[in-house]
Amino acid sequence: MAHPQPASVPAPSPSRMDIEQVRHILPQLIDALSDAVVVVDRAQKVVAANRRYLDAFGPGRAAVIGTHCMEVLHCPDAEANAGSSRCSACEVMELKRPVRRVRNMTDPGGAQRRWEATYNPVLGPDGEVSHVVEVWRDISERSDLEAQLAHSERLASLGTLAAGVAHELNNPMAAILAGVERLRRWLTREQQLPSRNREDMDGVLQGIERETQRCTETTEKLLLLAQPYRAATAWVDLNRAVRDTLSLLNYQMAKQGIAMVQDLDPKVPPVWARESGIRGMCMNLCMNAVQAMKKGGMLTVRSRHAGSMVTLEIEDTGPGIQPQHLDRIWDPFFTTKPIGQGTGLGLSITQRTVTGYGGTVRVESHPGEGACFIIELPVQGPGGGDG
After folding, report:
1. How far apart are CA 88 and CA 130, in angstroms?
2. DSSP for 128-161?
3. Which member of 30, 220, 258, 294 has the greatest number of CB atoms within 10 A?
4. CA separation for the pair 128, 124 (Å, rounded)
5. Range(s) for CATH 3.30.450.20 in the chain?
6. DSSP string spanning 54-105?
7. How confident is the model at residue 145 (pLDDT cuts 50, 70, 90)?
C-alpha cells in the first residue's frame, strides 16, 4: 500500500538583511554614505541625519534629532520655496511617490554647489506616508562637465553653420562696399554736393545702415547661441529663439531644398530659463531635423500656450526613427550619424535642459514618416536646468 508523500515545504526566501546583525551598526552605516541623508516623519520631525547631511546643512546631531526640520536645519528647499511652507518632503507625503529636485546652494565657503535630491516615501501599515527619506548628492562637478559638453556641442553646431553665416554676411557687406564706392566717386566728382542729390545720398546712407544692421543682428544671434553656459536665468522669448535659430539655418535649408513652416502663436508668454539653454535646445532639434532631410522635405515648427505651460513642436518629413532606437536616442553618445558628423550628445543635453526647467520632451516617429519632437515647458519653472 502506497503511503502518501509529505507535502513539500517551500524554502524560506532569503532576507535582504539580518536586522539583528546590523541594528547596532545602523548609525555607522548611514554615516559611511557619501551622500547626505536625512529622515523626517509625518510631523516633519527629524528622525535621523547622517554626518554628511549635518556637515552640509545643519548643526550637531544632538541639536537636530526630534526637532522640526524647518527650525534647526538650513533647509535646502527653503530658498527655492520662499514664501511657502510647503517643501518637497510635504509634496511626497501627499503624492506617495518619489520626487526628484535639483538645487543650487552656497556652501559655508561661499562657493556655489549643485545638489540632486531624491525624496523617497516610506509607507506605514495604514497605507499613508510615515517617513520621507531625503538623499542629497553633490553633483557640482558632474554638472560642470555636462555644461561644458553642452557648450562644446553648441560650438560644434556653429562650425556646421559657418557656410550659412558667410552667406548671410556676404551680401550685406557687398552692398556696403558698393555704397562706399559710390559715395567716393561722388565726393571725387563733386566739390559741393548739390541739393538735388541729397535725397539720393540719403537713400544710399539708409541702405548702408540697413545692411550693416543685418550683419549686427546675425552676429548677435550667434553670440546668444554661444554665450557662456553659466549665464543667468531670465525671461526668454521662445518664439524669438525659434525665429533666430531658423534664420541661421536658412542657407542650409535652401541648399538642401527644405521648405519651412513657422506656426508660432504670438500669445506664447516668455519662459523663465537660461537664454543659452533654450537656444541650444532649439538649435539641437532643428539641426537634427535638417540633417535628417538630406534630399529635401518640410520642417514645421509650432508653438502653443495652454494654461501655465507652453508647447514647442519641431516636425520633419525625414526617414523617421527606427523603433529599436526610440528608447536609446536620449542616451549620451548614442548616434546613428556617420563618424565625424555628430557626438551623440545633442538629444541627451536637450533632455537634461528641458527637465531642468521643469518640462518634458518626447518624440513621435514612425519609419518613413518623419519625426516630431514635442517639448512642454512651464512658464514659471525652476529655471535651473543643465543648459
Report:
1. 15
2. SEEEEEEEEEE-HHHHHHHHHHHHHHHHHHHHHT
3. 258
4. 6
5. 23-138
6. HHHH-S-GGGTTTSBHHHHS--TTTTTTTT-S--HHHHHHHH-S-EEEEEEE
7. low
pLDDT at 82: 52
Q: Does the domain made of 145-378 have the CATH classification 3.30.565.10?
A: yes
Please, which residues bridge with residue 133 across strands?
39, 120
Containing H/E element for 219? helix 198-225
- Region 35-55 average pLDDT: 86
Q: What is the CATH number of domain 23-138?
A: 3.30.450.20
- The x, y and z cell numbers of residue 280, run together, are 541650444
Given a contact cutoff of 8 angstroms between Cβ atoms, the answer to whether 318 and 297 are in contact is yes
By CB neighbour count within 10 A (0-12 exposed, 13-18 middle, 19+ buried), where does 285 fall?
buried
3-state secondary structure of 239: helix
The pairing of strands 360-365 and 371-378 is antiparallel
Cα(84)–Cα(74) distance, integer angstroms: 15
Q: Model's pTM, two decimal places?
A: 0.49
- Comma-separated ranges of CATH 3.30.565.10 domains in the chain: 145-378
Q: What's the number of CA atoms in the CB half-sphere (13 Å) around residue 92?
A: 26
The residue behind cell 494654461 is 307
Amino acid residing at 86: R
Q: What pLDDT score was predicted for residue 385?
A: 42
Q: Compute CA 165 distance to the chain's CA centroid, rounded to the nearest angstrom.
A: 26
